[in-house]
Amino acid sequence: MSNLSSLRRDRRIACLYRALSDLESGTPRQTWFLALARAADQRVLLQLEHIPPASGVDRLLAGLLPYLPLLPRWLMLRSLQLPGLLPYRLAQHEPFPAPVARLWPKTAEAMLLAAYEALLVNVCLMTAMGVARPESGLAQVAGIACLAFGGVYVALRGVFRSVPALAQQNRLLRDEPLDWSAQQEEAGGDLPEWLSHVGVGPERAAALLLDPDRFLDESLCRRLNLVPLPQVRPMWRGACLLLAFASGALAPIVAGSLVPVRYRLLALLLVAIVLLPWLGWQRARQAGADARDAAVRTALAATLGVGGAYLSGRLLAWLFGH
């Protein structure tokens, strides 16, 4: 039974890694994944006279790979317990090239800013509407409208601002050939020769193919240029900003819905005083600034913003006779 399970695993490795090598055409990862696939085939041939065809499930999984971004692709392969995925794990923390990074701010910082803006705007808007028409439910309607229209605006803004970064990355990849070309041509696509080119002996090369999770380390990955560059994905960034804005805008809506009308303004004030300083503190940590000072300044801004919204609501109520 264990032999049958091992055969199925090796067939899955060979099928998926051949699909990965096609996706990584022209990079060192093409050689790496193809070598792992060939090693899996050799293990099958030690037990069978010929290599059986891949199963329908494996072919389906291989067909999904071209449509998955880097992180979901790595998570799927990891869940299937495929070996040799260290290059993809390292790529999750790889920085963008400087020309791209200038046009592509960190997504985590942009998400915190979107959540901060959504929370501040929606708290102030709902406070003003709640003071002007406390019994009408206008505050909740205004909050939902802010969530819907503001979220769409922030998402589209993130998508369109990301297009120049995507074009810059494509230009870099097209105009500046990466330094593995000569090395790969000299090695002829054979992994042991490729490894010997950078000083790895045949014994360690054989061990890498047998157990890559044990013998492939971060330093060797970088010496072989196996770590892929992160990819600029405008639609993914827009979806992240939409989620962050919706989370920030939803907090005062939920707080206002869970308490009686007479306590709604107090609930909005508490949400602003608690969450806004926390978001400011997190943003300062991401940027390497003084987090405590940022939290204090954010709390003061929240108090002033909500106070100004309260006065605006009072003015609207006086003007319209409520």
Structural description of this entry:
The chain is mainly alpha-helical. It has two domains: 2-99 and 178-223, no CATH class; 107-168 and 232-319, no CATH class. Helix content is 76%, strand content 0%. The chain is elongated, with a radius of gyration of 27 Å. The chain starts with a helix and ends with a helix.
For the largest beta-sheet, the strand count, sense and barrel status come to: none
Q: What's the number of structural domains? A: 2
* SS summary, helix count: 16
Secondary structure tally: strands: 0
Oligomer: single chain
Gyration radius from CA atoms, angstroms? 27 Å
Shape: elongated
Q: Could you estimate the helical fraction of the residues in percent?
A: over 70%
First-residue to last-residue Cα separation: 79 Å
Strand composition percent:
under 5%
Q: Which spans of ≥5 residues are poorly predicted at pLDDT below 50?
A: 176-189
Write a concise synopsis of the structure shown.
Helix content is 76%, strand content 0%.
Spell out the blueprint of helices and strands.
Blueprint: H1 2-23, H2 28-45, H3 56-64, H4 70-79, H5 86-91, H6 98-101, H7 107-132, H8 138-175, H9 181-187, H10 191-197, H11 202-210, H12 212-215, H13 218-223, H14 234-258, H15 264-287, H16 291-319
Helix pairs in contact: 1-2, 1-3, 7-8, 7-14, 7-15, 7-16, 8-14, 9-10, 14-15, 15-16
